[in-house]
Design goal:
With about 350 residues, the chain is α+β, with helices and mostly antiparallel strands. The chain is built from ten helices and six strands. Helix 4 runs antiparallel to helix 5.
Length: about 350
């Protein structure tokens, strides 16, 4: 009889394969659960776990498996923290919506109570007709009461439509406010470009879809000297003007964002050669002399940036692609040097 140990050893490869399939399926289930639990943030968790699934399918080495355990824990912790923060914020949203509904219900209740009194009085008048003997007076009273009843019903219908219309208007305003809040969460407050969070989402989506794309990073030259020499108001003005010029230099389909500080990024759906052609056009259109306003009188300053370009390669992480773009940018930064001082 074959021992259990020998059986396991003889089927070790098959068992390992089955275990890996089960692990990958568990990762997929975790991602789907994250989407169901918190749709706005679950997609990011799902993408992270999906990348792990793909990596495990390509290279299921012991080191990769061990690293995946740490990454899964990190992804879940990050998703949990963000989801908790998201729902804390949504609690106030739900409260405001409930207040709108409560005010509407109160108004409708008050209206119904008012008309209830009118119908009670109307019913009482009809009862009083039973004791009248003059048919002419009875007829006139009935006609008057019928007209009054019709007017009350019409007014009640109009009030109901007005109350519903008012509630719809309030909810539309609140929905617009929520949409604006969502938009602002993706926008850099100083420059109006997409912020780092939004750009990261854009990059993750392209990687998940395995689309061809390139990134262009811009690091402003001598920006620290602008702040040190002319003040932070002048520095902010440079950032805002550069951002505006950069946005105008690219197509509406291109994602243009502020990566942080004096660094900007553009995500292009094109190959490396096309991206470099875009960069050369940007050097001509965006770089140059800017009129900057700060604490003192307006002054003209030369504004340029070191540029790095990289195209995403299949199977590459976003961090690896950025490392290549940064290396390309720092090569140019080193060649230009940081010795130039703004005039």
């Amino acid at each position: 009889m074959i021992s259990l140990k020998k059986l396991i050893e003889s089927n070790q490869e098959e068992l390992l394969r089955g275990t890996m399939h089960a692990y990958q399926a568990a990762l997929g289930a975790m991602g789907n659960s994250g989407v169901q639990a918190c749709p706005p943030l679950g997609t990011q968790l799902q993408l992270g776990l999906w990348n792990l699934q793909r990596q495990l399918a390509d290279q299921p080495t012991p080191r990769i498996v061990q690293e995946s355990e740490e990454r899964v824990a990190a992804e879940l912790l990050q998703w949990g923290a963000r989801s908790a923060e998201y729902y804390r914020g949504k609690t106030e949203d739900f409260k405001e919506i409930m207040m709108i509904m409560a005010h509407t219900a109160e108004a409708v209740g008050g209206r119904d109570q008012r008309y209830s009194r009118q119908f009670t009085e109307f019913t009482a008048r009809l009862h009083s007709l039973a004791s009248m003997d003059d048919l002419t007076k009875i007829r006139d009273s009935l006609v008057s009461s019928a007209n009054e009843l019709q007017a009350g019903v019409n007014q009640m219908a109009q009030d109901g439509e007005a109350a519903v219309s008012q509630m719809r208007g309030q909810l539309r305003q609140y929905q617009a406010k929520l949409e604006e809040a969502e938009r602002l969460a993706s926008v850099d407050s100083l420059t109006g470009l997409q912020n780092r969070r939004r750009i990261e989402e854009v990059l993750e989506l392209r990687v998940a879809q395995r689309r061809e794309f390139s990134v262009v990073v811009f690091d402003l030259n001598a920006f620290k000297q602008v702040n040190d020499t002319y003040g932070h108001m002048a520095g902010d003005d440079v950032l805002k003007q550069f951002a505006s010029e950069l946005r105008a230099a690219f197509r509406t389909m291109d994602d243009v964002g502020r990566w942080g500080g004096d660094e900007f990024i553009v995500v292009l759906d094109c190959c490396l050669a096309d991206a470099r052609r875009h960069v050369e056009r940007t050097r001509k259109w965006v770089f140059g002399e800017y009129t900057v306003r700060g604490e003192g009188p307006p002054r003209k300053l030369p504004v340029s940036a070191a540029v790095g370009v990289a195209a995403w390669q299949q199977g590459e992480t976003i961090a690896e692609m950025f490392a290549r773009a940064d290396a390309d940018m720092y090569k140019e930064k080193k060649a230009v040097g940081r010795s130039s001082t703004p005039a």
